[in-house]
Amino acid sequence: MGGEQSAEELAGTSKTLASSGQISAFATNSKAVDWSDYDKETGTDDFDLDSAGGQEALRKLRELVREAWTPGNPELEELSAFVTEATLRFRRGDVHSSYDRVLNYLSWRAKYLPSAGGHRLGTDEELEETLRSGVMTLLPDADADGRPILYLRLKFLDPQKIAPLLMVRMFHYLIMERALRSSPAAQRHGIVMISDMGSASFTNLDTRIPKAIMGALSKNFPVRLHCAIVYRPIWLLNLLFPIVRLFLSKKMQDRIHNVGYETAAVARVGNLKLARIPESLGGSLGDWKDTGYGVDAWVEEERRKYGGKVAESGGGGGGGGDGDGKGSGDVSQGVVAVAAAAALGGEEAKPLPEAL
Q1: Which listed site, 150, 152, 191, 283, has its alpha carbon 20 to 30 Å from 173?
Q2: What is the pLDDT of residues 196-211, one digit of tens each?
């Protein structure tokens, strides 16, 4: 993954404001993100994970992954079970490309999230606080196929306070822990992304963030980008958008839409349910809150699911709990990252058997 940014490069907040030249250079850089692997046609549209053939493909994939990194830990086994299932749905039953994607994700996770408090809100106060800021949230079941929306509002992003690595952690939590874990529909059909730049300016931009997120999406995460909508773009990006499209594959061009300031076009282009999107996007979502939407429910859900582990865990990526660093949830999840890093650290994945 040439040109991939390190965790250290993403850890610091921005010291200077983005310039128009930096934004233009990033937007028109054809090598900023490589979508070639993402665009490959794999599997079949009628793949059914619950069928006999689907379960056999899942068995093969899990066996291959287990041989490649031999977790030997209950937390790693659970993570592997979830990721292999999500990836096989994403790749529509193709074991070869699913194998590569699973190991890519595990390697990415070990690199960027080695101590993010178990990736749970009760153990990661910094993550929870940033989610409450409103800069990024998830709107579930937003179209006819049950796809969720990843809703990014640039006006709430302060690059001098929120580091790119924290944005990456938030993106990971919303996609992997919220969208994919809770929705087979998202695993099968993908997500919709909406970037709302209303009331934003150059002071809200850090070009490291889109590069890191798009890099994770294109090479590592097992999720399909069904549609990306740019809404109320900053004037410069509005001018650059036709040029940016020239550097994208035909498939990506068909998925990315600039609707300008036409609010009604958001739901129309995305084929979205009006009752599932807020008024700012032309909808009528009744319980919408401008900041912190959904976070209280997620915290309570995790408290019920993990019991005392969420409330008692401490340390890791912003901490939580009583600060003694002995929380069992944080420790057990930390083992996941450490073991994955040890198993995958810098080594290439084993080649698939020719029989497959």
Answers
A1: 283
A2: 999 999 899 999 999 9
